[in-house]
Amino acid sequence: MNANPLAAYRETRVKTASPGQLLVMLYDEAVKQCDIAVSLLGEEGKPGPESIERINAALGKAQDIVTELMASLDFEAGGDIAQNLFSLYVWFGHEILEANIAKDVARVKAVRTMLAELRSAWAEAASKTQGGPAAAMGVNIAG
Q1: Domain 19-121 CATH assignment equals 1.20.120.340
Q2: pTM to 2 decimals?
Q3: Closest alpha carbon to 85 in 98, 70, 71, 99
Q4: Is the dihedral of CA 25, 91, 43, 59 positive or negative?
């Protein structure tokens, strides 16, 4: 019997997901981490000292996910689309880093908006085919 049923559910969900569903999960988590950072930063981007560590952790997780998205690209299969996504991911990483240094809520919001738009596109593609769009778009989530 698993001591943490939620963790077991999440692990099963990831292990049984198609490549397209995995991409959507990555985007979901990146958006969630950006939302956490935005909430902690507040509208003025002047967080209290107690929030700094949590902001750093959230933006660090978002940056790790962007790095994973970059690593998943297959440039041979994806061509221009993979190259364009790579350029976007590089920009996301830079913006997240700069936002974290400056505690710039506007930068986090900009990245979050674009991540959410890409997430919606991938979710739509994944719902239309079972695992096919990721491979067709030059993404390889093979492990």
Answers
A1: yes
A2: 0.80
A3: 70
A4: positive
